[in-house]
Specification:
Blueprint (H helix, E strand, L loop, with lengths): L12 H9 L3 E3 L9 E3 L3 E4 L9 H8 L4 E4 L3 H8 L13 H13 L2 E8 L2 E11 L2 E9 L4 H15 L4 E5 L3 H4 L4 E4 H12 L8
Parallel strand pairs: 7-8
Antiparallel strand pairs: 1-2, 3-8, 3-9, 4-5, 5-6, 6-7
Amino acid sequence: MNRPFAPGHEIPPELLLRAYASGVFPMAENADDPEVFWVKPETRGIIPLDQFHVPKSMIKSMRKRQFEIAFDRDFDAVISACAQKWDGRTSTWINAPIRHAYAELFKRGNCHTVEAWRDGELVGGLYGVTLGAAFFGESMFARETDASKTCLVHLVARLIERGFQLLDTQFITDHLKRFGAEEIPRRHYEGLLESAIRQQARYYP
């Protein structure tokens, strides 16, 4: 069960980072809602980096080198795509205050993207927040088969290489389970979070 906190219209970057450090993140009822609410789930989705699993079908797909992978090339395009209605999704939790807040974190170096491009077109991607040695995945999208999954594989490779300890997915989906995602109790998550944010890891060297 989620625990909503007081709603608000704007999210100062410092407040947003403090929220992540305490296991809380913002959402909106829909894209047109001017307010946000704060969520602290009773269970949390994570992908243990030492147990990350790439399905055989993805290995075959990635060998084709269908996509050009980029990091932090076009944040605005990624969050705009994540906010669109796709794959049968009729609403989105990314509203204007959330877009503005994460754009500010991107400028400060605390928010990052992984992007899949083909022939100059953005066809998949994801974005998330870094704090200490933790990466908090926020959203992902795909306009072509395996585009977002390829971004996830490249993200995990970078996190492992750069010494990150925690990959938080907030919630889990069937598609994330294929890569080793699991759901853990809030108390367990908070212990992992406290340890991770005390460490230093750099998304860039």
